[in-house]
Amino acid sequence: MSNPKVNKNIGSAHVSFGSDISINTSKRLPKYDNGNSLAYRAYDTKNTKFIAIVSGVEDLPRWDAVDNYNSLADTSFMHLIRSGAVRWPLDGNQKFVFIYSDNMGKALLGQEEIHDVGWRHPDIIELFIHPMARMFKEMDSKNFNHGSVRLSNIYLSVSGKGDPIVLGDALSVYPGSTQSSVYFSPSKALADPFGRGGGALADDIYAFGVCLVLFLRKTGHITELSEEELINKKIEIGSYAALIGSGRFQVSFLELLKGILHDDANLRWGVDEIFSWLDGTRLAPGPLIKKKKATRPITFMGKKYLYAEYLAMDIHKSPSEAADMFENGVLGLWIVKSIDESGLTERYEKVLDRNGGLGAPVSDKDLLVSQLGLVLNTMLPVRYKDKSFTYDGLGAMLARGIISEDNLSYYSDVLNLGLLDQASTGFDLPQSEVVDNLKLYDACRASIKRSKGGYGIERCAYLLCGSAPCLSPKLKGYFVSGYRSCLVSFENICKKGNQISLFMDKHLIAFFSVHDLNLIDNILYDLNSTNKNQQILGNLRFAAAMQKKSEVSSVPLLAGIFLDSLSDVYKVYRNSDTRKKIKDGVRVAAEAGDLVGMVDLIGDEALLSVDDKCFKAASFEYKILHNEYTRYNKRLANKKIYGVVEGRNVAAVVSWIGAIAITMIITVSFLSERISF
Amino acid sequence: MAGKKKKKNKDKGGAAGSAGGGKVKRKGIGLKGRFFLAVIVVAGLIFLPTSMLLLVGMLPSLVSVLFSSKGVGAKSSTVAAMNLAGCAPFVLDLWSSGNDFEASVDILFSSQTIMVMYLAAAFGYMIDWVVTGLVSSFLYQKGILRMKDIRKRQKFIIKRWGAGVAGDVDTGWTKKGK
Fold first, then answer.
1. 3-state secondary structure (DSSP) of residue A527
2. Same domain, A445 and A314
3. Do A647 and B136 make contact, defined as CB atoms within 8 angstroms?
4. Are residues A272 and A369 in the same domain?
5. Which residues of A touch B81 (CB under 8 A)?
6. Cα distance from B34 to chain A (closest Cα, Å)?
7. Contact: B81, A628; criterion CB under 8 Å
């Protein structure tokens, strides 16, 4: 999790980051920029220089990988000092800032040309290849991928030319999003920058291979070819051949380059093979991917194709012609008869079934060309309408789509049409990974169907893109990546006024539900309730849980907002005295900004249970009294006869007592007259 | 079964006594009653002078028993007690003067005797009227006070627990300020 600090701007040119670091916004360090994430000079109180790389929310900085990055022990990584969200005065929005120590010299690639560092063959191995291999090993053990391995992001050590290189920033942007397509194998090079997926170490090793080729050629350009032409060439003859071209390299390097520039990530050299090569072991690079040539060409857009892989590259350029070719069976005949490859035929037949069989009219031509592209070349990314992405690349694009307020139905369509399933199944992945991916897509589709808080397309963004911060419209201008930043952001929003206590929207619920289901799980019922009071209570409970988790001691403004809207919530306590007592306690807690205290008072289960029992007893007593009242009312209605029976009984008793007394007196008196002593 | 029957009868008697409504079935004289009646008749024949005196002297009580409405046996009992007390001195007088038929007739034909015995019975009627009136008034006022207490307690319960505490019971009286 990020560690945002309390920020106060020191004048217009300085932004304080924590209590001891200040970023000079007027002092740019362009050589450390990573795409749109710009670098600035930063200082601490002892005037030590740092590099601050500032990322906007749209760059999808890797806040979730910070802990992982910090665990990397190799000194050839840029040393991360601190990271967190900062209010950026230049646009008034919060940015995510990474503070690195400044121990780097020139980048290996300058404006256009490679810096002449004067390294000979052993120096290249010792100062460039070996440190990179060490870093790859470290990344492999810590399950981290860099995503920004390129010559312009590899620096000479500041101490001198005898020291190893330093690998630049990896965290300020989404992996691979700022890389030129040159640094990717064809399977990712054709995808949009944010559609390349989360990346893997194999991608970093490939990018390192490209870096090495450029470094050895001492040029910033591979050839005079454009990026698209180079990708086509990579597909036609393989990356190794396309990149090496007619260049002259030492034979030992060629072996390494052949291994690490393999187009198939499964056959590409890994860390162990690189170290084996460094140790002098002779290894045979994996076999080149063989393409099956058709016995006769197929004509598409006036061009003849003999390979399915080449046709896959161009088929999206004319959906109507592709649909005609598919409907009249020309494409099927070409695949089955001319290429005759079992895997390709099987994939084609599946698509044929999905589209209603041979001769059935095609209703969605864009979908068809997308499906056919994946049939003809499984290693290529999905191309649907105007976007292109890998099987794991939709998440970041969706997150960007939410940020730029695009129509999100495109992403729902992609998920519902099963294009990711087709791409993931066709791509040469381990079976377990395919199963995990399919489960994930199923979860996304299930989420799209549900309209309750925490579901919908919003949830898909967080499921598919782990580094997406919370993209709630309520948090526009804030970078929220955890409990602390969320709570502090809402406190700041409350300062501006007009904040309501129902702050948990679909995005917030989905974000925290994906990142920490345990915390939000038992509050989901309240948050999704149709009862407004229950919703308010749910929001308060979640805010309190965040306060407890983030250890933010006081949020008085947010607590005040809740206090104002809790008047009906107290009704859960039915005893007016208890309610008043709770109300007073909650007011005191709110004034102290103690959300946890507020929730503890409102949701005191023991007290609620006692209150409920007492309420039932009171209700019972009320009914007994009501019955008694009704009885009295009925009997007292006839005043003449009321109590007469009881009165007569009393009269009888009185009369008998009197009669006995009189009789005894008479008897005694009679006897005393008769008997004289 | 017997217990149930008893309780049922008791309830019916209470309702009739309180509200004056409801018919009580008149039972015939039971075996015990018949036995006691026989003993009294036999004793009356044996002690005929005393029986004659009491028969005349207790006439008001007899009238009260025979003509009073059902379920008000207490009133006859009140009258009978005082009537009996009024007869007591003359019975003693009879017994002291030989307890024969002639003495009994002498006593009965004395105007004072009849007046004393019947005035005593009248006094019994007066006791019944006065005491019954006092007790019923007292009980009525007590009932009124209890009803007020019930309303007060119900208001308190509603104030403390809210109108929901009454459930489906009508709480309209709280608004009327009853």
1. helix
2. yes
3. yes
4. no
5. 652, 655-656, 658-660
6. 25
7. no
**pLDDT-wise least confident of A1-15, A23-37, A258-272, A462-476:** A1-15
Cβ-Cβ contacts under 8 Å, A641 against chain B: 18-20
Among A244, A278, A312, give the residue marking a domain's end: A278
Q: Are strands A293-300 and A303-307 parallel, antiparallel or unpaired?
A: antiparallel
Tell me if residue A528 falls in helix, strand or coil: coil
Does A216 share its domain with A239?
yes
User: ipTM score here?
Assistant: 0.78
Of A48-52, A533-537, B69-73, highest mean pLDDT? A48-52
Domain boundaries, chain B: 31-149
Q: Classify burial at B134, counting beta carbons within 10 Å of its beta carbon; exposed 0-12, middle 13-18, buried 19 or more.
A: middle
Q: Could you give the C-alpha distances from B94 to A32, A354, A664, B46, B98, in angstroms and in order?
A: 142, 129, 17, 15, 7
**Is the pLDDT confidence value at B27 over 60?**
no
Domain hosting A125: range is 120-278
* Higher per-residue confidence, A91 vs A272: A272
Q: Give B140's contacts in chain A (Cβ within 8 Å).
A: 636, 639, 642-643
Of B136, B147, B162, Cβ closest to residue A643: B136
Q: With 70 as the cut, is the pLDDT of residue A64 above it? A: yes
Average pLDDT over residues B109-133: 92
Write down the pLDDT at residue B2: 38
| CB-CB under 8 Å, A632 with B147 | yes
Q: What angle do CA A352, A357, A360 make, to 5 degrees?
A: 115
Taking an 8 Å cut-off on Cβ atoms, the answer to whether A656 and B77 are in contact is yes
Whether residues A373 and A445 share a domain: the answer is yes
The CATH number for A91's domain is 3.30.200.20
B 114-143 residues inside an 8 A Cβ radius of A: 124, 127-128, 130-140, 143
CA–CA min distance B105, chain A (Å): 20
